[in-house]
Design goal:
The complex is a heterodimer of chains A (97) and B (489).
Chain A (H helix, E strand, L loop, with lengths): L4 H10 L6 H22 L19 E2 L9 H5 L10 E4 L6
Helix pairs in contact in A: 1-2
Chain B lengths: L6 E11 L36 E2 H13 L3 E2 L2 E2 L2 E4 L9 E4 L6 E8 L8 E12 L3 E4 L7 E5 L6 E7 L6 H17 L12 E13 L2 E4 L3 E4 L4 H22 L9 E6 L4 E4 L12 E2 L6 E2 L2 H9 L5 H12 L3 H9 L2 H14 L2 H19 L10 H12 L5 H14 L3 H7 L7 H14 L1 H8 L6 H11 L5 H14 L1
Parallel strand pairs in B: 14-15
Antiparallel strand pairs in B: 1-11, 1-12, 3-7, 4-18, 5-6, 5-17, 7-8, 8-11, 9-10, 12-13, 12-14, 15-16
Amino acid sequence: MAISEQEIRKVALLARLELTPEEARLMATQLSRVLEYMELLNSVDTQGVEPLALAVEVTNVLREDRVTPGLDRESALANAPHRDDECYRVPAVLGET
Amino acid sequence: MAALPYTIVVGLEVHVQLLTESKLFCGCSTKFGAPPNTQTCPVCIGMPGVLPVMNAKAFALALKAAAALNCHIATFTKWDRKNYYYPDLPKGYQISQYDLPLCRDGWLDVPSEDEAEDRRIRIIRVHLEEDAGKSLHDEKAGRADSRIDLNRAGTPLLEIVTYPDIRSPAEAKTFLQELKLLLNYLEVSDCNMQEGSLRVDANINLHIPTPQGIAATPIVEVKNMNSFRAVEKALAYEAERQWGVFQETGRKLGEVPKQTRGWDEHAEVTRPQRSKEESSDYRYFPEPDLVPVTVTPEEIERVQASLGELPADLRRRLRRDYGLNAYDADVLVNQGRSTVHYFLRLADVCGDGKAAANWIQQDVLRVVHERQISITDFPIPPDTLGEVIRMVRGGRLDTPKGRQVFAHLLQHGGRPQEAVDALGFKDVDDAEVQALCRELVDANPKVVAEVRSGKEKALGSLVGQAKKRNPHVNPARVKEICLELIARM
């Protein structure tokens, strides 16, 4: 297995996913297969080949610095599970120790 | 200052907001102080299916700052996603730059107080990234949640990281002042800490000589410093704290995990914060929605050539070409580019750099500050004031009368000669003053003898008599002529 259940739990924590033990085992198997495929790709000799930043060879897509209309506050807050008149409300982020 | 038993080693990580109208990847306004959540759009609040597009002005400003910081600018640069969960980060990632930043390896020279030479602080990298939103903590009792304002999410930031080249809390402050001045001159950022357009974190540890060699204390990242003064105070506190801990425990770098501490402005102490995630935990990967940006060597050269004279160049020029001392040059340059331009014109017209600097510092800037205007709106043009200073230098006016002319011009405008006439200051022909002085010197042998015996103060009585005879004479000129006459006797 290319990835352990412990590593799965760490990645899940970073992605804020709660996995049951069965799900963690399933993920470990599936992600391991993905990583094995990566190993196959890694076996290709890429010496002297420039890394590719993007699949399309386009650069310098820029826009002018101009203010354009955005969302009114009601629309911006419309999907929020918790909100008040002005803001999104989230569980406290105080107490950073 | 007594030598410390250790060396303080500091590196800074500075974020400055770029002076753009709109955000980095969308057209929302970046104006400070708007009501919460009124400057957002689907791009900056992370709705599915949207595409970020790079702001050309933000990129240009970043390039300008990079050139002014003497950096090696990459001809190919790309953006990456820095993944972490925090309520003020709606997408769940920040678009930043990881392995191919805009530029690397620069430096900024900062004036040093006790050394004649500037101190060179090296820059590791400068990159362009977006800001997160803002958490507003609800002060009301019983509310266990936080409020989120996303107006700031997506605002363009320049991250500037220095090498650990800074050697004292005071030097950290000087570096920040110099960086702010530079970015103000370039009109890259206003660096206003109150409005959050400059934020700074510091990494600090101590190098302590011991019989076993140099011992380094564990590195601490200090956050939450809200002014340059706070940076200086926090680092001074932290250095002493680390020295105390080292004496107690002897713990060295690598023996404990890196710690993050926050500066408590009221208690004037640093306190531990949650430990920093390892950089691999951010799971950086290339941002697939943005295309890379390339810059040609010719474009880089053009940017370098367009920078104009920067604060350090101007300080040097004012000292070398206008005879100013370091203090005066510093005061003028710190006032900004338009004050320096006013000075240059004034000094050229009146022909005396030192006098021009004095008039600006004592008279012009006083009015500018009182009226809370910019020097570009100051009512007396440098050519006019230059003429007044020439009159004072040439002896036509004494300094108090020069000030009266200044005040008159300030109120009524016009030419210096008109002010002189309106105030009833009559020009006294120099030959007339000469004759008057000769008469006085001849008539007062006792005063002359006193002056010759070294009591120059005795001249006061001659000046007094001259003013009684002709109230329009310049006392300084009378004194000068009398001294000359006595010396020749």
